[in-house]
């Protein structure tokens, strides 16, 4: 699987603490091996993020992505649940 990152994802990733970055790296590696591993809680989104999916990174941290094709995933953004989903 090819994984690409939007500039917004990269910017938010850089703001994470080293421990959170390491957890993010681990979860994305797990995602590449097994996108529907129960640890990731991979699920479809609705509303503003319709046609996107989310995985759990750890704690309250989420990563939102778009499945471009069967082999290409585009991670759009990263943040806590309230940051991403508040109205």
What fraction strand?
25-35%
Gross morphology:
globular
| Class from secondary-structure proportions | alpha+beta
Order of helices and strands: EHHEEEEH
Q: What's the CATH topology name?
A: YaeB-like fold
Tally the beta strands. Answer: 5
CATH architecture level-2 label: 2-Layer Sandwich
Number of helices: 3
Q: Round the Cα radius of gyration to an integer and report it.
A: 12 Å
Low-confidence stretches: none
For the largest beta-sheet, the strand count, sense and barrel status come to: 5 strands, mixed
Return the domain count.
1
The CATH homologous superfamily: RelE-like
Looking across the biggest beta sheet, what order are the strands in?
A: 1-5-4-3-2
| End-to-end gap | 33 Å
* Mean pLDDT, all residues: 94
Q: How much helix, percentage-wise, in residues?
A: 25-40%
CATH class: Alpha Beta
Describe this structure in words.
The mean pLDDT is 94. Strand 2 and strand 3 (53-58) form a beta hairpin. With 87 residues, the chain is an alpha+beta fold. It has one domain (2-85): YaeB-like fold. It has a five-stranded mixed β-sheet with strand order 1-5-4-3-2. It is built from three helices and five strands. The protein starts with a strand and ends with a helix. The chain has helices spanning 7-15, 18-33, 81-85; strands at 2-5, 43-44, 53-58, 61-69, 72-80. 34% of the residues lie in helices and 34% in strands.
